């Protein structure tokens, strides 16, 4: 529990979760801010995907996208994962045999489970809920009931109620939905809470229907959603490269489709890219069955950086943000010492190829500012401003083309395929990203060092 990285993320979480939203100045913009709750109870570290769970000895303590909501009348408390990958919304039923394991069935291990008979507004629908997540079938009934989230109410939210025990968690998908399932984002748009099915995600906050200009710096670049004929439509863009210390890994394999998935904590890349990255770190082990490698922490090198390129936008982070440490031998000083084993949290994509070539999990997503615009099939990305606690500056996303305020096309000039004219908004800054990156990295070093004293 004491690796510098994990503590750093927890710190960021505290600050963001407690942030007040300065929306009142704007005469009630149609936005909904939902802070994630912190994973404190051991049960809450259960993920909705099997792959991450079984990692032994490993510190998997990244930002979790868990929201505190209620369903039913009177309101039943539920903790549910915000999932950017899937396309359904479902909750455990109290009658699920998994919940029988707990003395308090309705609490169902801390997450909460839904009791249909206890709700006066519940309506069981005729269609059956059947959700196939790459062969893992989850079944139950569809119901509609009152969903309350962050102070707003969706009167008839359609939700699958899982009666068959299966390893998954209460889930609210934020993406596209399909003919049988609606996503939370779409339901909020349909209910008129937000203007357009779009949301921003940064740190541990989801902001439906708006952007927060105070939480990113530099341009907000927009990229088209890319489709792969063999895969379901998802929140997916092209990535143009990954490098360590500015030396690119397997550059000829890019561009590659990259999908955003808050339900996994690590990120996954094709084998050729993983091998090239591992080679740059140096003496790494052979990948384990999850595609992950370990290495001696001293091999990482002080101040090593990792870069992710999307068109005109390049993110740069300390490599240590994508490395975790064996938890039981981690030292308390916030830095890695020589003899310890480190684990690279960018792994070969062994199990998640059905999601895409590259899967960007919460270790990546928690380090960037992202806007997902389902109406226009676009994703906007910017550098996350996590160190300045300046006042929130929340602006609505409007319906129609170019609804994301201040965003401009991030497509590289050299590529013609993904054109998308720049919408040349005056709001976009010309700030020197270089200066900010230096500042960002410098501050992070300070923060990681300061973890000792705060000792979370
Ligand atoms: C969720 O909200 C309920 C009701 O406000 C509260 O009692 C509970 O402590 C919250 N849970 C978490 C994990 O924040
Ligand atoms: C569900 O609610 C009903 C009605 O309030 C109650 O009788 C029943 O015990 C509850 N079931 C569980 C498993 O808690
Ligand atoms: C909706 O998506 C789920 C999960 O991918 C799938 O199991 C279900 O069959 C889909 N429903 C329809 C009507 O396409
Ligand atoms: C590489 O790592 C292995 C196992 O971690 C170790 O036995 C070996 O000595 C290392 N080689 C070098 C050159 O550091
Ligand atoms: C490092 O990875 C290798 C190969 O997967 C594995 O055999 C070894 O146990 C790992 N070392 C640690 C300390 O986890
Ligand atoms: C990256 O560069 C830094 C110096 O800025 C160096 O200390 C580190 O070892 C390098 N890392 C790798 C993996 O090459
Ligand atoms: C790493 O960065 C710090 C702070 O900028 C600097 O003092 C140190 O010399 C750097 N180390 C290496 C190996 O470049």
Automatic annotation (TrEMBL):
**Which regions are flagged for Low complexity bias?**
406-422
Region Disordered, as annotated, extends over: 398-432
Q: Please report the stretch or stretches of sequence annotated as the Peptidase A1 domain.
A: 65-382
Could you cite one Gene Ontology molecular function of this protein? aspartic-type endopeptidase activity
| Presence of the UniProt keyword Hydrolase in the record | yes
Q: What are its GO biological-process terms?
A: proteolysis
Q: Does the keyword Hydrolase apply?
A: yes
Gene3D superfamilies, A to Z: Acid Proteases
The record's listing under Pfam families reads:
Asp
- InterPro entries with a match to the protein in the record: Aspartic_peptidase_A1, PEPTIDASE_A1, Peptidase_aspartic_dom_sf
Q: Where is the signal peptide?
A: 1-19
The record's annotation in PANTHER family points to: ASPARTIC-TYPE ENDOPEPTIDASE, BETA-SITE APP-CLEAVING ENZYME, ISOFORM A-RELATED
| Protein name in UniProt | Peptidase A1 domain-containing protein
Source organism per UniProt: Penicillium hordei
């Amino acid at each position: 529990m004491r690796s510098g990285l994990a503590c750093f993320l927890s710190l960021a979480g505290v600050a963001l979760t407690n942030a007040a939203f300065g929306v009142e100045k704007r005469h009630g913009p149609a936005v909904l801010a939902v802070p994630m709750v912190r994973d404190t109870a051991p049960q809450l570290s259960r993920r909705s995907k099997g792959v991450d769970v079984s990692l032994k000895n490993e510190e998997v303590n990244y930002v979790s996208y868990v929201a505190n909501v209620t369903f039913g009348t009177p309101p039943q408390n539920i903790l549910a994962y915000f999932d950017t990958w899937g396309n359904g919304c479902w909750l455990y039923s109290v009658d699920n045999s998994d919940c029988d394991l707990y003395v308090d069935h309705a609490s169902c291990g801390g997450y909460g489970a839904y009791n249909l008979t206890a709700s006066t507004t519940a309506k069981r629908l005729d269609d059956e809920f059947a959700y196939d997540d790459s062969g893992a079938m989850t079944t139950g009934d569809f119901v509609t009931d009152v969903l309350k989230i962050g102070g707003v109410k969706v009167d008839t939210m359609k939700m699958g109620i899982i009666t068959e025990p299966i390893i998954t968690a209460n889930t609210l998908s934020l993406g596209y939905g399909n003919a049988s399932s609606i996503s939370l984002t779409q339901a909020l748009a349909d209910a008129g809470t937000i203007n357009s099915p779009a949301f921003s995600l940064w740190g541990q906050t989801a902001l439906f229907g708006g952007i927060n200009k105070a939480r990113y710096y530099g341009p907000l670049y927009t990229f088209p959603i890319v489709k792969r004929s063999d895969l379901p439509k998802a929140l997916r863009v092209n990535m143009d490269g990954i490098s360590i210390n500015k030396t690119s890994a397997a550059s000829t394999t890019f561009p590659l489709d990259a999908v955003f998935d808050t339900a996994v904590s690590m990120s996954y890349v094709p084998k050729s890219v993983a091998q090239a990255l591992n080679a740059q770190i140096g003496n790494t082990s052979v990948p384990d069955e999850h595609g992950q490698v370990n290495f001696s922490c001293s091999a990482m090198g002080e101040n090593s950086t990792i870069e992710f390129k999307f068109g005109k936008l390049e993110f740069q982070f300390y490599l240590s943000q994508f490395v975790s440490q064996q938890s039981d031998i981690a030292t308390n000083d916030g830095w890695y010492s020589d003899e310890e084993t480190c684990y690279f949290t960018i792994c070969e994509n062994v199990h998640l190829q059905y999601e895409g070539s590259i899967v960007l999990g919460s270790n990546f997503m928690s380090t960037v500012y992202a806007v997902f615009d389902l109406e226009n099939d676009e994703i906007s990305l910017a550098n996350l401003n996590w160190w300045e606690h300046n006042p929130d500056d929340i602006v609505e996303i409007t319906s129609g083309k170019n609804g994301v305020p201040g965003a401009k096309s991030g497509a590289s000039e050299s590529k013609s395929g993904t054109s998308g004219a720049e919408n040349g908004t005056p709001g976009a800054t010309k700030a020197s990203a270089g200066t900010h990156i230096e500042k960002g990295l410098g501050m992070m070093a300070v923060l990681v060092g300061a973890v000792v004293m705060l000792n979370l």
